[in-house]
Design a protein that fits this description.
Elements lengths: L1 E7 L3 E8 L4 E9 L7 E5 L6 E4 L5 H12 L13 E8 L10 E2 L2 H9 L8 H14 L5 E5 L9 H4 L5 H7 L8 H15 L8 E6 L3 E7 L2 E5 L22 H9 L3 H10 L2 H6 L5 H9 L3 H25 L4 E5 H6 L1 H8 L11 H6 L7 E2 L8 E4 L4 H14 L21
Parallel strand pairs: 1-6, 6-8, 9-12, 12-14
Antiparallel strand pairs: 1-2, 2-3, 3-4, 4-5, 7-8, 9-10, 10-11, 13-14
């Protein structure tokens, strides 16, 4: 059984094909610059040279059609025809309050996703376009929606409600939703295995750090708080997003610079964060390199990011009580040893004892690593995330009728004998 995972962004389509019987990825890749022009596909099959093809994709349907033609190509593909795909799992960023777990997509589900697209105007519309395009191109296979927000629907009211007029919540759904749910789910389950305890007995702070950044407070295996809010703009410092700021700043700057609401929203989402501080960079590798060369603003960006990470560890430690572990994941979390060190050094007073040598050696996306000392009361792990595996297992379980709440459903990666391939 071959499961396809699709992640449709505003100008990209990421895909992966997973052989469920063999438990291996057989192909993955991405179509970039969809809609914007000069689009191309990069296709990767284990054991083969990477393949690239330039082809114009004016919309997501053209991009997904290119994906299908590539994976079934006689020379570069891995399938004889599209009928070998048993099901498709689609990433959907925002499910609002309607979805607490992954679901089989039908007309009612798609309508419900459309109803909340105003809560994620940059993400849900391309997700919807991808679903509709894939359904047209693969009408005979089941399609499943996997929601970024679902994992966080266990948050209590006092954590997800904002201290604003209550009718904003009742009329417009203004509340904290959280994102990166599949990533937080995966790494928290893996951390429980590494701790040698059931997930239901673990209190963990997970830190997903890439261009987008979110942290999650997990108590007894479930999300009780998270940094991103109504939208992915709230929370930690990110590549181009500001994260937490004084809410009066937007109106203040709108008056000072004569900016529209749309313009200030674009600045806070696309020109702030690490880019806003450095003025040039979002890639932390560039920031670290230039900080070492004496660039003060790059050094400042690292200090600001690390300081915010440290503050959230402390805040979420207070939220969960006894803390078992902190987990770093995603591109920067997995590869950014310098940022991890700045964030957790000198935290012995709260039970975190960094092993600098272990941390420096944890610079791979292929291995799970402990970066604290053996006697550190709170363990800190670097765990490569695998959101696509969550997609795949949700899809398979929905097809065979075994899918249920994540605390009851037994994922393969939550087992002691799991081996990452």
């Amino acid at each position: 059984m071959i499961i396809m995972a699709l992640n449709c962004g505003s100008s990209s389509v990421k895909y992966q094909l997973f052989d469920w019987e063999k438990k291996v990825v057989v192909a993955k890749g991405m179509v970039e610059r969809v809609i914007v022009g000069d689009s191309f596909i990069e296709h990767d099959v284990p054991g083969r040279p990477a393949y690239r093809l330039d082809e114009d994709c004016p919309d997501h349907r053209a991009a997904i059609d290119l994906v299908i033609r590539t994976v079934t190509d006689s020379q570069h593909g891995v399938l004889k025809n599209v009928n070998e795909i048993s099901a498709v799992g689609h990433r959907v960023v925002h499910g609002g309050e309607k979805f607490t777990r992954s679901v089989l997509i039908d007309a009612q589900v798609l309508d419900a996703v459309k109803e909340v697209q105003h809560l994620a105007p940059l993400h849900n519309p391309p997700n919807i376009d991808g679903i509709e395009a894939a359904q047209l191109l693969m009408p005979k296979v089941p399609h499943v929606a996997i929601f970024d927000t679902a994992f966080h629907q266990t948050m209590p009211e006092h954590a997800y409600l904002y201290p604003v007029p209550y009718d904003w919540y009742e009329k417009h759904g203004v509340r904290r939703y959280g994102f990166h749910g599949t990533s937080h789910l995966y790494v928290s389950k893996r951390a429980a295995v590494l701790l040698g305890k059931p997930a239901s007995e673990c209190n963990i702070v997970t830190m997903h750090i890439g261009n987008g950044v979110s942290h999650c407070a997990i108590k007894n295996g479930v999300s009780v708080d998270t940094t991103m809010g109504l939208t992915p703009l709230e929370g930690a410092v990110m590549g181009t997003r500001c994260g937490d700021i004084d809410p009066a700043i937007p109106s203040f700057m709108m008056q000072k610079e004569n900016l529209s609401a749309k313009e200030i929203d674009s600045i806070l989402n696309k020109k702030s964060g690490i880019l806003g501080i450095t003025g040039r960079y979002t890639d932390r590798r560039d920031v670290i390199e230039h900080a070492k060369a004496g660039d003060h603003r790059c050094e400042l960006a690292l200090d600001i990011e690390a300081y915010r990470l440290r503050k959230y560890i402390g805040a979420f430690m207070a939220a969960v009580g006894r803390l078992d572990a902190v987990v770093f994941t995603a591109g920067v979390g997995e590869m950014g040893a310098a940022i991890r060190e700045r964030a957790i050094e000198n935290l012995e007073h709260i039970g975190i004892v960094l092993d600098r040598e272990r941390n420096a050696g944890a610079m791979t996306r292929k291995r799970e690593s402990l970066i604290t000392t053996d006697d550190s009361p709170v363990k800190v792990f670097v765990i490569p995330t695998d959101e696509e595996l969550v997609f795949t297992e949700d899809v398979v379980a929905i097809l065979d009728g075994s899918y249920t709440d994540h605390m009851q459903f037994e994922y393969s990666f939550a087992k002691k004998d799991f081996v990452r391939k």
